[in-house]
Amino acid sequence: MKKTKLLLIDDEKPLLQNLKQILEFEDFEVVTAGNGIEGLTQYEKESPDLVICDIMMPEMDGYGFIRNLRTKGYTSTPFIFLTAKSDYDDLREGMNFGADDYLVKPVKSSQLLEAINTRLQRKREINKKLEIQLSQIENGFRLITDKEFFATVYDIIGYLHLLKSKHHLLDEESLQEYFGYMEKSSNRLLSLLRKVKNWHEQEKNLVLDSDDKSNSTSVKEVLERIANGTAKNYNREKDLVSNIDADINLHVNAGFIETLFNELLDNAFKFSQKGNPVSIGTSIKDSTYSIVIADCGKSNNYDSLINFKPLNKNAKIPQNDPGLGLGLAIVDLLVKSINGELKFEKNSPYGIIVTVNIPVPFDDEPPMKNNAA
Length: 373
Known about the structure:
Elements: E1 5-9, H1 13-25, E2 29-33, H2 36-46, E3 50-53, H3 62-71, E4 79-83, H4 88-96, E5 101-104, H5 109-166, H6 172-203, E6 217-218, H7 219-233, E7 240-243, E8 249-250, H8 254-270, E9 278-285, E10 288-295, H9 302-306, H10 323-337, E11 341-346, E12 352-359
Parallel strand pairs: 1-2, 1-3, 3-4, 4-5, 7-9
Antiparallel strand pairs: 6-8, 9-10, 10-12, 11-12
Helix pairs in contact: 2-3, 5-6, 5-10, 6-10, 7-8, 8-10
């Protein structure tokens, strides 16, 4: 069985070796470093399950280490500060940087082991909940996929049966009309297949407990590119009202963000008429990054959107676009995977307002004051 790997960082070599021996005796694999700079190298090389770090160290202290760690996107690894400093402000500063626990030297081995096991157990519980949530989402995804596929295929089969039994009674104009219906249904089926393909391509980005955060994407850059491209595709560049000012970097690949907002912006243009504005804006407030997309069109899909329940087997699917439900289900899944929120509201007097709220990542928050000496 693979041992749990700990990264222990402290500039006091006797203490470092003593703690290493204690933890190895408890059947942990222990990797050590003498300061924050060495710690970063060891972290990226070893991918530990938990970090124990002193605060006051040369070259890079504990605060500098955890700030660098979080800035690089390593946010899911439990972190315990081990320090001689016991001032409340120091404790609060460590917690603000993302530490999970704070132990004051000299620390008893029993106290340290209890803290380690508590944090590891907490991490396992969180991962278990995420696994259950993802399983539920995947099951719901299959339900709505089946429903939409069958609805579209039945349309095509219905037209084929009608043509087969009534073709001799139909004039050329009627025949062409039914051929047009079949072509439209076939295109809808193709759209569904593409959406499912997008889902499978994005599924690999939804790894639950991964610290592989080498990708960093500017949301603003992706939004600007997609908004301009979508407006051009609909020949509605003049209808686009863009106020994409605020920006954050998400530790996902660009394709993840593109899939999410391609669907929302495409819907905004698809379900509104040329000459009516489609606006997109961004803002940051209270550690939340908000993207708001609004259209002013008239559509029969408004009630379906306002009452949209993602991945619900009883969800009402818009009759003129069964792919809409699947597309929004994928969007909802992607938003949930980054701990975000998806909301639909009615615009006044017509249209839909879609809001995506995303927690601001640690490295995009205002810098904290460092009191470490």
